[in-house]
Please model this.
Amino acid sequence: MIEIKGLKAKLGSFVLEIENLKIEKGEYFVVLGPSGVGKTVLIDVIGGIIVPQKGKILIDGKDVTKLPPEKRGIAIVPQDYALFPHMSAYDNIAYGLRIRGLSEDLIKDKVLGLAKIFEIERILSKKPSSLSGGERQRVALARALIVNPKAILLDEPLASLDPRLRMKARSFIKGLHKDLKFTAIHVTHNIADAAALSRRIGYMEEGKLIFIGTFEKFVRSRYAVPYINEIKEIINKIR
Amino acid sequence: MAMSRPLKGEPFLVMTLGVLSLFVIVLLLPMISIFLFLKPSVVEKVFISSELASEVRSALATTLEASITSTLILALLGIPSAYYLTRREFKGKATLEGLLDIPLAVPHTIAGIMILTGFGRRGLLGPLTTSLGIRISDSFWGIVAAMLFVSSPLMLDTAKAGFHSVDPMLEAVSRSLGAGALRTFTRITLPLSWRNIVAGTILAWARALSEVGSILVVAYFPKTMNILILEFLNEFGLPYAIALAVPYLLLTLVLFILLRLFIGQKFMSW
Model:
């Protein structure tokens, strides 16, 4: 479980303030909001890249606010996936296991096992520069999940995909979450991602999480007004 | 895409080609002429026969030892410093970076005087260097200090460019996967900026080998190659100076070619 209490992080003139947020174990929580409202800052603060001035971040009851990223057990999947360009897809996925000092045989078993689930067996020897957007996304997700993190933080992971691939990736992540039950915080500006992936969402504006509730409740709230056209489209698709 | 030759009716491009040709001639002429003036009999005298030979060998050894020592110290100091300067923002950073680049702009004789006033026996840190048994004036460590001072911006700036080229998010992801800061540096940052680090090291070494002005002030003795070339020029004339200069020039050219190969070759392609 991830808990955030009275958090305040200042970056120049920008201030991120999260009063109270609880994400249950195994929950896929989406933070929705327009560009520039501080979604990435939120990810960076939870991931330990930015240290907040005030407040607490608890993971499974343990205060990790002052811990460095490597001690938090939280894996990050950034918007551009940040695959290590000098390593093959296999070595990217194996990276976290090698850091933990696992034997190469065990690493191979785990990487190949996960690669099968992610349907990326064919591309394991390739370098990131020769992978497609969808393949990169899968490698980045596999790299994050293989270390069995307490949670993964996804920063607009579908943003660089074209609409067809984006839909495919959404259902892939949804299926993956159903099977693996990992805890995730996914930030996006795309309401269709939020609708497809999460039962409960948060909505951010100007550095503050001003709504937390079910997607249905969000749709009926005043915060959904800027998304009205997209929401109509989603409803039409469901019908 | 660059055009292979100026198009007809483009006088500006024709003019720039003319300027380039003149520039190449002006630069290449002295590089070629030094070889034309080389007299093999004098080279034989300087390097093999007479008591000059032992002095030359000693100067060459001093130069190589001092330049390698200064480059290694510079790499040890410069690489972590460059990394910190690249990854952290703090008050006064721009001023500090400007200060660290000053050796590029300071006339080299003045750089020599600075080293003496800083680390010499009567300098600010004189008591410390003396208590550590390090003599700066007319000593091997004086040459090392002079070489280090003048070549430091090359190492720092090239390493900084390398670290700037590595996306900090790669480091953040590595750390989120369990690697500490040092392991992230050795497994992610260093392999991705290695070419710049090597280039910076070679540049710093080449700069150390070519230094003369500050060494003249700080440590005339033990003699380095550049000091000896100057001495030969004054005492025996141009043919002797050329006989000493050409082999030394060839050594620095080898370094230059190595540098070009490192920069140009994609031995770590992705």
